[in-house]
Every structure is written in C-alpha cells, then in structure tokens.
Amino acid sequence: MAKKRPQTKAKRPQLTDAEIPVVGAREPCPCGSGRRYKACHGRAAAHAVTELVQRPFEGLSGECDWVALRELVPAATVELKLRDELPEGVPSVTLATVLPMAWPALRRDDGSILLGLQNDTASGDISRDLADTLQQAFTAAPGTPVQGRRAPADGPRLQDLLDPEATFEPVVHSGFEFWVPDAENATPEVTASLERANAAAIPTVKLAGVDAAYWCETTDKNHLRWVMPHPEEQLLDALARLHAAGRSGLGEGTRLVGSFRAHGLTVPVWDLPSGMSAQDIEKPAAEFAERLADALASDAPLTAEERRARGGLTNRQVTLS
User: Fold this and answer.
1) Mapping DSSP to helix (H, G, I), strand (E, B) and coil, where does residue 256 land?
2) 288, 286, 283, 259: which is closest to 271 by C-alpha?
3) What is the DSSP string of 137-184?
4) Residue 257: partners with Cβ closer than 8 Å, 6 or more residues away
5) Exposed e or buried b per residue across 133-147, where buried means at least 16 C-beta atoms within 10 angstroms of its C-beta
6) CA gap 171, 149 in Å, rounded
7) Mean pLDDT score of the chain, rounded to an integer?
8) Which of the four pLDDT bands, split at 50, 70 and 90, describes residue 39?
9) Distance (Å, rounded) from C-alpha 127 to C-alpha 96?
10) In sequence order, what are the residues at sequence separation of 6 or more whose Cβ sits closer than 8 angstroms to the Cβ of residue 250?
11) Is the CB of residue 271 less than 8 Å from the CB of residue 255?
12) Does residue 38 have a pLDDT over 80?
C-alpha cells in the first residue's frame, strides 16, 4: 500500500491592515483569519466610523457659525468654496440649514448643489458624513435628491474638501423660498410645503457687530444665543466674573440665563424683553464683547462670590451634542 503523503497547507499571503479591503460584514475577512469581517478587521473600521468627534467643524472657516446653523438657525444658506475646481456641470455648492423632506443634499436641474446641514448622521463625525454626501451630489443626476449613507471610515472630511481661506458668510432667511429657484411660480404642492415650513420657523437674525451671535423671537420673550470659540473652562470663569459684578447683562430687562454645549463649543444664552429687536441688541452686544475680552484676560483666582456665580451657570448648562 502506497504511503499517504503528508498534507501541507499552503501559506496564505500576509496582508497588512492597510491592504485589507472592505467586504460585507458577514463575509470571511480577507486577512485569512477564518472569522467574519465584522468580527475581525471590520471591527476597527466600524469603530472609526461611529466614534464621536467632539468638534466636527474645528479647522473650518467660521466654526462658530457652522455650529449655529446646525443647532440654532431655522433657515440660512452659505456659498461654499472648494479647495479644488468644481466638477464639470456643477456651477455652485450652497450649504443650507435644512432641505425639503430632510434630504441630505439636492442636485438642482441646473447642476448646482444644495447641501443640508441639519440632518441625522450615520456616524459620529458630522464632517465626514457631509463630505461623503457632497461627493455623492457631484455625480448625482440633475434634478434629484441625494440619500444619506454610512461614510467610509477613511473618506475625506469637509476640512479636506473646502477652501480653508474662504470666508464663511451665512445669509439668514425669513423663510425657505431658497428651496426653489422661482417660489412665486411654484406648483400648489410646493407652495403648500413652503407655507408649512415657514410657519414653523422661528424669526432669527444674525448680529452684524459681533461673530456668531443670533437673535431670535419667541412668543413670550426674545433671546440672544451666542456661539463662542473660547475654551469652556476659561469662558465660564470669565462669565462668572462678569455675572458676579452685575455686568453680564445686555441692557435693562436682559439676563444671562445659562449656556449649552454644542459640537465642542459653549453657547451662552440671554433672555431679552419681547420688545427688544436684533437692532436694539447690536450695541449692547458689542459692549459686552469688550467686557468679556477683559474678563478672559484675567488669571486671578475666582472670589467666593464669583465661584457661586460660576456654579449657578454650570448648573444651568446642558449639552445638545
């Protein structure tokens, strides 16, 4: 009887992590481990996609206004400028707070793109999700919306696509007529949709004299919500110094009521009398900015009264994102 030859296993080629392609979650991992992709190299990829980025707009021009348009402003648009030339057939890219049907993006009939900011995102990095949606819009057929999806973990972020030197200048609208090129001649269905959206929008105005401060009007009182770039602990100390000294208000009948965190930044909020307009608050806000700059420059330890004021501000602080 002939002897059986000993069985030898051919060695699988060794792949580095960078060489392992993305496959279906339930498929065998290409590394040759014998495990499913989701339980092997897909685990790191999934973690990279879902890990929360605390300041997704950091490094972009106008970071504070990005946060405001994401969380505070109902209707606004901003013309975006890319690092590279726009693709052929794409005359412009415009960021919009929200789009009809909460579409992530819309490629208009003329090829221009509206990119929606106030959308649920598939990962923990809003910047990467928006960049992926924008890239999808470049190749979408004119006249069609773009649907959201899970962005690749190694895909570009907005910081990779947008010109860092371009100014970020939001235009706040009283309604959503920017959805359609010719709102006056829109169909009855579109007109009805616009009317519903406009009825739900809170009147909002961007102050001209200071950065990223937005006045809004509600039924009982008005508010000023001001997105600030300063480190949170330093800002809270400065606000506490002003509050303890009775200098945190913006004029008669106004009151600093607290702050909230949004996308890694702090947003102080003031209650204003219902009769105080955005124009009325321009000068007091500019004067407050000067007082705040002085308070931010102080490194003296907080007094007991200032510590109590800080505690009160901290207790009224909430986190939106």
Assistant:
1) strand
2) 259
3) HHHSPTTEEE---PPPTTS--HHHHB-TTS----EE-SSSGGGSTTGG
4) 269, 270, 271, 316
5) bbbbbbebeeeebbe
6) 28
7) 89
8) confident
9) 15
10) 224, 270, 272, 281, 284, 285, 288
11) yes
12) no
Q: What is the 3-state secondary structure (H, E, C) of 82-147?
A: ECCCCCCCCCCEEEECCCHHHCCEEECCCCCEEEECCCCCCCCCHHHHHHHHHHHHHHCCCCEEEC
- Determine the average pLDDT of the residues in 300-315: 96
The alpha carbon of residue 246 and the mean position of all alpha carbons in its chain are separated, in whole angstroms, by 33
Tokens of 286: 């500019």
Q: Tens digit of pLDDT for each residue in 134-185?
A: 999 999 999 999 988 889 888 999 999 999 999 999 999 999 999 988 877 7
Dihedral class, residue 130 (left if φ above 0, else alpha if ψ from -120 to 50, else beta): alpha
Dig out the tokens for 108 from the structure. 């208009």
Q: Which two tokens stand for residue 198?
A: 């406009």
| CA–CA distance, 103 with 174 (Å, rounded to integer) | 20
End-to-end, the C-alpha distance of the chain in Å comes to 75
Residue for token digits 């792949």?
Answer: 15
CA distance 26 to 40: 10
